[in-house]
Structures are given as C-alpha cells and as structure tokens.
C-alpha cells in the first residue's frame, strides 16, 4: 500500500500565499543550525583556535627559506592575510573604476 506524500494545500484563487517566518524572527531552536548565534560564535572560536595552532606549528617545522623574510615566524600567515586584504582593496577599486550609471543601457 503506497502512501502519498504530504503536501501543503494551495490557497484559494485570489487569496494571498501563506507567509513564511524569516529565520531571524523564529525562536533559536527552530532556526537552521548555521544561523544560530551560538553556532556562529562556536565556528568563529573554532576557526581562530585552529588558525592559531597552525601558526604555532610553525615553531616545530624546520623550513628552508629561499629569501630572508620567508624564514620569519608566522610568515605564511601574515603574508596570506596581507595578500587577501590587498586583493579585496584592488577589487573595490576596480569596481569603482568600472562602475556605470543605472541608465547606461537606456536608449
């Protein structure tokens, strides 16, 4: 005996669709686990601790620097951070340089 899946009935013709409560208005227990404030806080702390441990592991690894600066403590961490900031700033500047008015394609 097969069962039909449960479906939400459609509203009558001319009636507004049923409203959906946004996540930020729902109680915390009903929210998706990735938008709960406690989960977000745990993810930030976990990521920060993981990154700090990776930088501390730099003390135990014997590197073979090709230049003088890449042998400094935490070089790859701060170099990656500075590179990321530079890419974001470059993209922002490029966005301002390529920006067009809203009426650019109007005839």
Characterization of the model:
Helix content is 41%, strand content 0%. It contains two helices and no strands. The model has no long low-confidence stretch (mean pLDDT 86). Among the domains are: 23-61; 64-97. It is mostly helical and 107 residues long. The relative contact order is 0.05. The protein is flat. The chain crosses the membrane at residues 43-61, 73-91.
Shape: flat
Give the end-to-end Cα distance, rounded to a whole number of Å: 63 Å
Query: The biggest beta sheet, please?
Result: none
String of helices and strands: HH
Strands, total number:
0
Mean pLDDT: 86
Q: Rounded to an integer, what's the Rg over CA atoms?
A: 26 Å
Q: With helices defined by DSSP (H or I, 4 residues minimum), what is the helix count?
A: 2
User: Helix share of residues?
Assistant: 40-55%
* Structural category: mainly alpha
Uncertain stretches of 5 or more adjacent residues: none
**Proportion in β-strands:** under 5%
How would the blueprint of this fold be written?
Layout: H1 37-56, H2 75-98
Key features?
107 residues
Short description:
The protein is an all-alpha fold. It has helices at residues 37-56, 75-98.
């Amino acid at each position: 005996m097969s069962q039909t899946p449960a479906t939400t009935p459609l509203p009558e013709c001319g009636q507004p669709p049923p409203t959906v409560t946004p996540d930020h208005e729902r109680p915390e227990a009903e929210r998706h686990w990735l938008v709960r404030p406690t989960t977000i806080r745990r993810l930030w702390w976990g990521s920060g601790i993981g990154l700090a441990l990776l930088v501390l592991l730099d003390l135990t690894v014997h590197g073979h620097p090709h230049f003088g600066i890449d042998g400094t403590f935490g070089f790859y961490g701060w170099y990656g951070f500075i590179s990321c900031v530079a890419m974001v700033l470059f993209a922002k500047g490029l966005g301002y340089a390529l920006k067009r008015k809203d009426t650019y394609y109007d005839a």
